[in-house]
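Exercise 7.
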Amino acid sequence: MTMQLLIPRAPERAAALVEALAQAGIGSSVVQVVETTPSADTAAVKAAMNGPAEHLVVTSANAVRHVLPMLDAGWTPPHSVFAIGPSTAEAIQAAGWPAATCPEPASTEGLLAHPQLQDLGGQHVLLLTGAGGRTALLDTLRARGATVTEAIAYQRERLQPPSAALADALATATHVLLPSVETAEALLAACAEGDRSRLLRLPVVAPSMRVIQTSQQRGYSGTHAVADGMNPAAVLAAMRQLNTDPAATAAAQPAEPRAMTEADTTDQAETAMPPPTDAAPAASKSGRSFAAAALFVTLLNLMVLGAAIFLAWRLALPWLDGALQKGESLNERVTKQALVNERQTERLDDQKQRSASLQRKLDLAEQTSAKHAARMDAQDARLGTTEAAMADVTQLVAGGRRSWQLSEIEHLLLIANDRLQLSGDLEGASTALQLAQARMATMNDPALLPAREQVANELAQIAATPRVDTRAIALKLASLTRQVPELPLSRIAPTDFVAPAPVDDTASGAEAMADAGKRALHMAKQALKQMVVVRKADEPTRPLLPPEQDYFLRQNLTLKLETARVALLRGEATIYRDALQTALAWVGANFDTDNRGVQAMQAELSSLLGERVAEARPDISASLQAVRRVIAQQGQ
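Solution. The predicted structure, written as C-alpha cells, is:
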C-alpha cells in the first residue's frame, strides 16, 4: 500500500516537503489548520530587538520570518546566535544573520545543554519566539543569571478548513505530521466526530519527544517516530523508520507441541517388535530365555521412551524460540517504558519548576491586581466627581446655548423692525423675519410658538404691502437734473431782426442816390421799431435776471431735483412734493415756457408730483415682544 502523509501546514511551507515525498513515491495531503500572524505590538518587538544582548536565541523559523519586516534597515544581530533546530537555522541563514548554533538533539533540552548557555551571570539574552510557547527556556535562562528580553514576533490562530477536504485527506492518509502541540490540538479540533478515531490511530511523525508525549496525552495512540527537524530529508527518514520498525507489526506465534498419547506409544511398539513365535517352543524354553525376552522388552521400552523424549523436544523447540523472542520484546518494551518514565519524570520536574514559577507570577499578579484595584477605586471616585461636574457643565452649556439662540432671534427681529421703520426697506425686513423664523424652527421650543405665529403674520403683512417703483422715479429725476443746463431762460428783447428789403440796382445814378437815402431812413425806422417795443401788460413786468445769477438759478433747480430724489429714496413724501413744487414754480417763472424742452420738463414734474412715494409700513413689533417675554421667563 502506498504511504500517504497528512501535512497540517500552510501550502507554501509544505511545498518542498510535498515535492520530496512525491520523488520518493509517497503521496501527501496538505490541510492548513494553524496560521501564524505577526504580532500586533510592533513597537514592543522593535524595542526588544534593539535592546542590549550578547546572545540571540531563536525558537522557530516563523519568528525569523515575522520579525524581519519589523526591523530597521541598520539592525545588527548579536554575534552569538542559537537556533532550536535545523529549520530555524536555515531561516536565520536566509535572513543574512550570523551562522546559528544548532543543538543535538534539536530540542529545548539540547539547547540548554550547550556550554555557552550555562553560566550567564550579568549577560543579556534576546529570546525571539512566538506567543503561547513553553516557558522552560525562559525560566532556565533566568535561573542561570541571565537578563532575558522576550521578543514575541507572532502568534498562532486556529483555522477551520473545509470539512470535505479534511475528511478526504483523512480517508487516504496512512501517516500524519505533527509539527507542534498547537497543530496537533488544532487538527484534532477541526476533525468531525467520525474522523477523530481514525486520526488518533495514524502513525505520527513529530520533531521532538515532547510533541509525541503531549499528543499521546491528547489521545494520539499510533506508532511514532521523531524527525530531526521538519526539513524534507528528516521527515522522509522518520517515515522510513516507521515503515520498517518491527515493533509496528505483530510477529507470528508458533503452535503449542501436542502431547504424546498412549495409542501413539502402542503403534510405535508394534512397529518395532518382531512377529511372535509358536507357543509350544516358548513353553519349553528355560528361565534364561524368559529373562532375555524381558530384557529385550525393557530395552525396547527405553528406546521408545527416548524416541518420545526426542520427538517432544523437537516439537517444543520452536515454542521455546518464540518464548525467547517474546522475552526479548518484553525486555525492549520495559526498557522503552523506563525511558518514557524517565522522560515523564523530567517533564514532571519541569512542570514543578513551571508551577513554582507560575505561583510566583501569580503572587506577583495578585499584588499587582490589589494595587490596580486600589487605583481603580480611586479612579472611580474621581470619575464620579468628574461626571457630576460634567453634568453641571452640560446643564450650563444647554442653558447658555438656549440663551444665545434666543438672543440671536431677538437681534434678527430688531434688525427687521429697524429696516422697516427707519429705512422703509420691506425686502430687508422680510429677509430678517425669515432668518428669525428659521432659527425658531431649529430650536423647536414650544415656548416660541406664539412668536412664530406672529412672525408668520408679519411676513404675510409685508408681502401684502404694495411696492413703490422708487428706482423708476429716481431715474426720471436724474434725467431731469441732466436737462437743467440746457433749458433756455425767458427774455424780453427780440431774439432776431428783420432784414431790410434789397436795393434795386437797375435805376440810374440820381435815382439810385435818392432811393439810397429812402432805404437808409426806412432801415433806421425798422430797426428802431424792433429795438423799442411798447406793450400793454395786465400783470406786473418781471425784471430780467442779471447774467451772474443765471448760474445760481440752474444750480438751485438742480439741488431741488436732487432733494426730491433723496426724499424719494428715504420715503419722505412731504419733502419730495415740496421740492418738486418749488422746482416746477422756478421753471415756469425763469425759463422760456414757449420752449418745447421747458414745456416737457413742466409736464414731467407735474406727473411726478402725482406719484405715491411713501410705502405703507405695517407694525411688526408683536413678534419681538413675544420673544422678549420668553427671554424674561427663562431669566426667572
